[in-house]
Each structure stands twice: as structure tokens, then as C-alpha cells.
Design goal:
268 residues, seven-stranded mixed β-sheet, 10 helices, 14 strands, 25% helix, globular, disordered C terminus
């Protein structure tokens, strides 16, 4: 059994700050494993609203150090471990979130570092396995130079989440072979700013990757005004690939979109 649950679809600071859309991240369930990707503000309340038990979290994954992606990391760790009563769980993320270097301070507190079983700072083109799932990091290009995306190789499908990025040849190469593609597209048309995707760039990626399903999310004010549903329909018309504009609480069964068999048998 596999399931995707969107705890929010907010992208820009304006959308997050006003909570026009939720910003709690994305849950990926694969059999008994539960991954929480980019827990932004409101993760706990949105998890409760959409029926997700955060104590069941196996691993938290954070793509970069902007608050709409990592704000609730410590709170989710607290929920995952029952406030440290259970020493469990894994935290995977960019080193800008998890490590101290130069003037960078880790977003995860020392207290919460001690509550989990393992913390794994990741760089671009890194591989890690958690039981039956292999996770490859993606070479994204964002205003946080240490930002990464995630590609999951699961027993019956592969799924990629780009996080925030602009389009690059290397990223498109790494996305090749993806069954379910989640793109953060805060801008409509051809209007991207700050190393992010717009609809035109998303169309180029989908045309190259040819996933079985594309889901766009992480919407800014401009995208909401343009209507993400209309942008998704335009993407599908041009690419011929099924494309969904996510909404808060959206649930998808990704296993129906691929037949990938993972060789991974459990390693960190």
C-alpha cells in the first residue's frame, strides 16, 4: 500500500503567512514506512485535519532552509518521538538545515537532534536507503545553494519531488525514469523569479521526463490568481501527460502509476 497526502500547497511567503493555502508539507506512505517531506508552518494542525498520525513518521526529509519548508521540523520530531520518550526516526536534509558551518546555523535544535535515531545531512547526488525504499537526492538550483530534491525508488513505483529549483539539464537527467513527478511551481506562464519554476519550465521538464503522472504544488499569489487548475490543464494539453494541481488534503495512490522493483533491503 502506498499513499501521498498533501498537508499544504502554499509556496510564496505571502500565501504561507496568510495561510491562503496550508504549508504542512507532503506525506508519503509506503507500506509501513511514513515519510514527511518539507514540514512547513502548520504541519501538526494539518496532519490532524487530514488524519495523519505524525508519531508513525519513519523519516523527515527537508529540502532546504527556507521556513516554508523547514519551520516545523522540530515540532514534527517532537511528535514523532512523543517528546523524546521514544528514541526513534531519521532526519534527512540539506546541510543548510542540519549542519553548522561558516555563518550558517542548523535549523534543528541540539535538543531535537538527541531525540532521533539518526541525522543524515545530504548533498546533491547522494543516495540513502531506508528499509525497502532508496532515496536519491536531486541536483536542484535554488537561492539556498545547498538545496536538494528527493527521488524515491519504491517497490512498485518511483516518485520525485523537486523542491524549489529552476530548470537545469542535470536535474532533467536525474528525473528521467520517474513515474510520479511532483513539481513546485509557484509562478504561472513565463514569470518565474528567484530560481523557481513557472508553468513554461514545468512543461519543459514534463516533456523531457515523460512521467505517468505530474502533480504541481507550492503555489504563489500569481499562480493562485491564474488558477492552478487551468495551468495544470494547459500542461496536460501540451504534454499529453496526466497533470494534477494539488489542493490541501489531496490524496493520491502512487503505486498505480509504476512497476519499479527496488533492490534496496534496508540501509542508511
Amino acid at each position: 500500500m502506498a499513499q501521498l497526502i498533501f498537508l499544504g500547497t502554499a509556496g510564496s511567503s505571502a500565501v504561507v503567512n496568510k495561510q491562503i493555502r496550508g504549508s504542512g508539507g507532503i506525506i508519503l506512505k509506503v507500506e509501513d514506512l511514513q515519510f514527511h517531506i518539507d514540514p512547513g508552518p502548520g504541519s501538526l494542525s494539518k496532519a490532524k485535519e487530514f488524519g495523519v498520525n505524525l508519531h508513525h513518521t519513519t523519516a523527515v526529509l527537508v529540502s532546504h532552509n527556507h521556513i516554508n519548508h523547514c519551520n516545523d521540523l522540530n515540532a514534527v520530531i517532537d511528535a514523532m518521538t512523543h517528546g523524546g520518550i521514544e528514541h526513534r526516526g531519521v532526519v534527512l536534509g540539506s546541510k543548510s538545515v542540519l549542519q553548522q558551518f561558516d555563518e550558517n546555523r542548523p535549523f534543528i535544535t541540539k535538543h531535537h537532534q538527541n531525540l532521533v535515531e539518526k541525522i543524515i545531512p545530504l548533498e546533491k547526488s547522494h543516495k540513502v536507503g531506508i528499509e525497502l525504499v532508496e532515496i536519491n537526492t536531486l541536483s536542484v538550483d535554488h537561492t539556498d545553494p545547498y538545496a536538494i530534491g528527493f527521488k524515491f525508488f519504491c517497490p512498485k513505483f518511483s516518485l520525485a519531488y523537486t523542491g524549489d529549483t529552476e530548470i537545469t539539464d542535470k536535474l532533467m537527467e536525474e528525473l528521467t525514469g520517474t513515474d510520479v513527478l511532483i513539481l513546485n511551481v509557484p509562478f504561472p506562464g513565463n514569470s518565474a523569479k528567484g530560481k523557481n519554476l513557472d508553468t513554461e519550465a514545468a512543461i519543459k521538464i514534463v516533456t523531457h521526463v515523460r512521467p505517468k503522472l505530474c502533480i504541481i504544488t507550492h503555489f504563489g499569489l500569481e499562480m493562485l490568481k491564474a488558477d492552478p487548475i487551468q495551468e495544470a490543464r494547459e500542461m496536460q494539453r501540451i504534454t499529453g501527460i496526466q497533470t494534477i494541481a494539488a489542493k490541501d488534503g489531496l490524496q493520491v495512490a502512487p503505486a498505480g502509476y509504476g512497476e519499479y522493483t527496488s533492490p534496496v533491503k534496508g540501509f542508511y
